[in-house]
Design brief:
By secondary structure, the protein is of the alpha+beta class. Among the domains are: 116 residues; 49 residues; 162 residues, Heat Shock Protein 90 (2-Layer Sandwich). The protein is 73% helix and 6% strand. It is built from 31 helices and seven strands. The C terminus is likely disordered. GO terms for molecular function: phosphorelay sensor kinase activity. This is histidine kinase.
Length: 746
C-alpha cells in the first residue's frame, strides 16, 4: 500500500531533461490525447523561434504543455517547465516564472529532492502573492500539501491544503477546489481517517460530475476504490478501479494506468490470487520504470516480494524486498519503508523464522507509528502477533492480536460504511437526476425544432392563403391540414408527458432498491465480518498452539457473545427477507399474546439477571391476536433486546397489552433506561439512525426498528415510540384482535 495508490493530479517525473528534437515526433500524438493543449501547429513551434523572440503567449503555451505532460511524459514536463522559467526571467515575466516553478517543483519533490522543491514553491508563492493571483497561489499550496503528505507530515499537508480550499471557496474556483478536496481526502486516508477521507472524496466527486470533469472523476473513483480495498470490500473496489482505468487508458495517462494496475494487483494479492496479481504488478512496474517513479518502484517491488514469498520463491522475494527498502530509505518515503519492513516480516513468518520476523516487524511498527497510518499499523501488529507466538511469547502475542483486531475495527468502522452507503445513494441519485435532465433537454430541443418547423409551415400556409384568397376550396383544405398537424402535436406532447411520468416512477423505484441494497451490503460487510474475523483469529491461534488453555477460556465468552449477536441478527434479517414474499399472508392466524411473550421473556430472563434488570410480564391471559405469530415474535424480541441494551442495573422492563374497541390490541414494551433524544426518535423507523453502544458496550446495526416497523405494518398494525433522555422509553404497536377479512364482513 502506498501514497501513489491515489492519483493526486499533475505530479511524477522520469528525471533529467530530454532533448527537444527527440520529443518533436511525439507531440502530435500527445495533442490528440490531451485536448487542453493548444493546436498541433502551436505545439510544433520550432525551438529556435521561441528562444529568439520569447513572448508571454509563447511562455504560457510552454507551461500548458509542461502541465499536460506530467500525465504521460514527465521528462518533457520538466524540460518545458524549466525552459519556461528561463525565458520568463529573460523578459521579466513574473507569472511565467511562477507557473514554471510549480511544474519543476513537482518533479523535484517526486524525485526526493524536497529542498529544491521547497525553494521552487516558496519563490512561486511569493510571486503569486505580489501579483494577487489567487488561482496560482491555491495551486502552489496544493503542491505543498501533496509533498508533505508524501513525507508523512500530515499536519503541514492539511494546513497548506486548507489555505488552498479557502481561496477556492472565496473565488468559486470549482476546478481547483475539486483538486483540493481530492488531495485533502488523500491526506486523511494516509492518516487512516477513512470517514474524513470519504467526506472530501465525495465533495470533489459531486463537483466533478456536475461539471463533467472526466479525468478528475476517474481519479476520485480510484481513490474511493482504495478506501474500499482497505475495508476489504474487494469486489466493489475492483469495480471502482475498472471505472477509472477505462478513462485513463482512453486518454493515454500512463502514470494513472500504472497506479491502478498496482491497486488491482494488491487486491488480487489480498485474495491469494498470486499469479494474477503478478501480471498486474508487472505492468505497473514497467510504467514505474519508464517514469522513474521512485515511490511507485519501491511499492511495487514490495508487492511482488510478498507474492513470491507466498509462492515459496524466497530468493526472488528477498531480492524484490531488498530493492524496495533501499529505494524507500534513500528517498525517505516513510510509508514504503514501513511497507517493505512488514513485507520482510511476512516472508520470515511464512518461513517460521520468527526471530527475523520479529526484528523486521518491530522496525515496521516503529515506522508505522511515525507514519500514523492505521492500515500499516494493523499489518505490523499482525506480523508481531505471529512472530511472538512463534517465539513462545504468548502474552505479548495476545496483546498484539487484540491491537490488530482493534485497528481493523477502526478501519471498518460503522460510520465509514454508513457514509459510503449514504454517499453512494446520493451519487446514484445525482447521476440519475443528471440523466433525466439530459433527457429532458433533448426532448425540449426536439420540441423546439418542431415548433420552428410548425412556424415555417404557418408562414408558408399564410402565403398560400394570401395568394389564393379567391379559392375557398384550397383554403379549406389547408385549414384542415393545419388542424391535423395541431392534433398530431398534441398527441405527441401527451406521449412525451406519459414517458416522463414513467421515467420518474422507474427512477423512484430504482432509488428505493439501491437504498435497500446498499444498506444490507453495509451491514453484512461490517457486522458479520467482525465476529467471523475474531473466530478465525481464535482458530488460527489454536492451530498454531499460540495460546494456553486458560487464555482460550478467557477469550471464549467474548467470542460467543459476538456470535450470539450475529446469529440473532441473521435470524431477524432472514425472516424479514422472507416476509417480503408475496405469500406472507398465508401464515396469519389467531394466537395467544401471553404465550408468545412468555416464551421470549423466558429466553432473555438470564441476560436480564446478568445486567441486574427486572423483566416483567404484565400481559393478560385472555388476549388473542389475528396476525403472523413469527412476525410478532421477531418484533417482541427486538424490542426486549433493545430495552436490555439501554437499561442499567436496577432498571425495569415491563411488557403489557390492552384491548381497544374490541377490534385491536395495543402491546407496550416500557423501560426505565437511558432514553433517547427527539432527533434519534424521529429517525428511528427510517433506517437513518446510527446505532449507539449499550450500557455494557453492546453493539447494534441501526436496522432493527426498521424491520419491526415493516413487520408490524404487514400485520395491519402500526408502531410508535415515546421517550425522554434519562427517564426511559416506551414502544407501542397494535395488532388486529380479529381477522382483517372477518372484520370487513362485520
Amino acid at each position: 500500500m502506498r501514497f501513489k495508490k491515489h492519483i493526486a493530479g499533475n505530479h511524477g517525473t522520469r528525471g533529467l531533461i530530454s532533448a527537444f528534437f527527440l520529443l518533436f515526433s511525439s507531440l502530435q500524438a500527445f495533442a490528440k490525447s490531451h485536448p487542453e493543449v493548444d493546436s498541433i501547429k502551436n505545439l510544433l513551434l520550432p525551438a529556435s523561434e521561441y528562444q529568439k523572440n520569447p513572448d508571454t503567449a509563447t511562455i504560457n503555451k510552454l507551461n500548458k504543455i509542461a502541465s499536460g505532460y506530467f500525465k504521460s511524459n514527465p521528462d518533457s514536463a520538466y524540460y518545458y517547465g524549466k525552459k519556461s522559467v528561463e525565458l520568463s526571467r529573460k523578459i521579466k515575466y513574473p507569472e511565467g516564472i511562477a507557473d514554471g516553478l510549480l511544474e519543476t517543483g513537482h518533479v523535484s519533490y517526486f524525485k526526493g529532492n524536497t529542498k529544491q522543491a521547497k525553494q521552487n514553491f516558496d519563490e512561486a508563492i511569493a510571486i503569486f502573492k505580489s501579483l494577487h493571483n489567487d488561482r496560482g497561489l491555491s495551486k502552489a499550496y496544493i503542491s505543498y500539501g501533496r509533498m508533505y503528505n508524501q513525507l508523512a507530515e500530515y499536519k503541514l499537508a492539511l494546513d497548506y491544503l486548507d489555505k488552498a480550499r479557502l481561496i477556492c471557496l472565496r473565488n468559486q474556483d470549482e476546478p481547483v477546489l475539486t483538486d483540493c478536496y481530492k488531495n485533502i481526502g488523500i491526506t486523511y486516508f494516509s492518516k487512516g481517517q477513512l470517514s474524513n477521507a470519504l467526506d472530501f472524496y465525495y465533495k470533489g466527486l459531486f463537483i466533478a460530475l456536475k461539471n463533467n470533469y472526466v479525468t478528475t472523476s476517474a481519479e476520485i473513483y480510484n481513490d474511493i476504490g482504495v478506501v474500499l480495498q482497505n475495508m476489504e470490500v474487494f469486489p466493489n473496489a475492483l469495480e471502482y478501479f475498472k471505472k477509472a482505468i477505462q478513462v485513463f487508458e482512453a486518454t493515454n495517462n500512463k502514470q494513472a494506468v500504472g497506479t491502478i494496475n498496482e491497486n488491482i494487483g494488491e487486491v488480487l494479492l489480498a485474495q491469494h490470487k498470486y499469479d494474477e496479481a503478478i501480471l498486474y504488478l508487472t505492468k505497473s512496474l514497467k510504467t514505474a520504470k519508464q517514469q522513474d517513479d521512485k515511490d511507485g518502484l519501491s511499492s511495487v517491488y514490495t508487492d511482488l516480494g510478498m507474492c513470491y514469498a507466498h509462492k515459496s520463491q524466497i530468493l526472488l522475494a528477498k531480492s524484490y524486498l531488498d530493492t524496495s527498502l533501499q529505494i524507500a530509505t534513500k528517498y525517505q518515503i516513510v510509508y514504503n519503508q514501513a511497507y517493505a519492513l512488514n513485507g520482510y516480516a511476512t516472508m520470515y513468518n511464512l518461513l517460521s523464522d520468527y526471530k527475523n520476523a520479529y526484528k523486521y516487524a518491530v522496525g515496521g511498527q516503529a515506522q508505522a507509528i511515525k507514519l500514523g497510518n492505521i492500515s500499516v499499523r494493523s499489518n505490523s501488529a499482525l506480523q508481531l502477533n505471529k512472530a511472538m507466538a512463534g517465539l513462545g511469547k504468548y502474552e505479548e502475542a495476545n496483546r498484539m492480536l487484540n491491537e490488530y483486531i482493534n485497528l481493523k475495527n477502526q478501519i471498518n468502522d460503522n460510520e465509514s460504511i454508513q457514509k459510503l452507503t449514504s454517499y453512494n445513494y446520493e451519487l446514484g441519485f445525482a447521476e440519475k437526476k443528471r440523466q433525466l435532465a439530459q433527457q429532458q433537454r433533448e426532448r425540449d430541443l426536439i420540441y423546439q425544432q418542431k415548433i420552428k418547423s410548425q412556424r415555417l409551415v404557418n408562414a408558408i400556409f399564410s402565403i398560400i392563403i394570401a395568394a389564393m384568397i379567391v379559392t375557398v376550396g384550397i383554403y379549406y383544405r389547408q385549414k384542415r391540414k393545419q388542424q391535423k398537424i395541431n392534433a398530431l402535436l398534441e398527441d405527441r406532447n401527451s406521449e412525451i408527458l406519459k414517458q416522463k411520468t414513467n421515467i420518474d416512477d422507474q427512477a423512484e423505484k430504482l432509488n428505493d432498491l439501491n437504498v435497500l441494497k446498499d444498506r444490507l451490503i453495509s451491514i453484512l460487510a461490517h457486522d458479520l465480518r467482525a465476529p467471523l474475523s475474531t473466530l478465525r483469529g481464535l482458530f488460527s491461534l489454536l492451530q498454531d498452539d499460540s495460546i494456553s488453555h486458560e487464555e482460550l477460556l478467557e477469550m471464549i465468552p467474548g467470542v460467543l457473545k459476538k456470535l450470539e449477536y450475529t446469529s440473532d441478527f441473521l435470524d431477524t434479517l432472514l425472516f424479514w427477507i422472507n416476509s417480503q414474499m408475496e405469500n406472507f399472508e398465508a401464515s396469519v392466524k389467531n394466537f395467544s399474546i401471553k404465550g408468545l411473550v412468555s416464551l421470549e421473556i423466558e429466553t432473555y430472563h438470564e441476560q436480564a439477571e446478568l445486567k441486574g434488570i427486572n423483566l416483567l410480564d404484565s400481559i393478560p391471559g385472555n388476549l388473542s391476536a389475528w396476525a403472523d405469530p413469527n412476525s410478532v415474535r421477531i418484533v417482541i424480541r427486538n424490542l426486549i433486546t433493545n430495552a436490555l441494551k439501554f437499561c442499567r442495573e436496577g432498571d425495569t422492563i415491563e411488557i403489557s397489552a390492552t384491548m381497544e374497541d374490541n377490534k385491536r390490541i395495543i402491546v407496550k414494551v416500557k423501560d426505565t433506561g437511558v432514553g433517547m433524544s427527539a432527533d434519534q426518535r424521529d429517525k428511528l423507523f427510517k433506517g437513518k439512525v446510527n446505532s449507539k453502544m449499550g450500557t455494557k458496550n453492546e453493539s447494534g446495526t441501526g436496522m432493527g426498528m426498521l424491520f419491526c416497523k415493516d413487520l408490524v405494518e404487514k400485520c395491519h398494525g402500526k408502531i410508535w415510540v415515546t421517550s425522554e433522555p434519562g427517564v426511559g422509553t416506551e414502544f407501542m404497536f397494535t395488532l388486529p384482535a380479529v381477522a382483517v377479512a372477518a372484520s370487513a364482513e362485520i
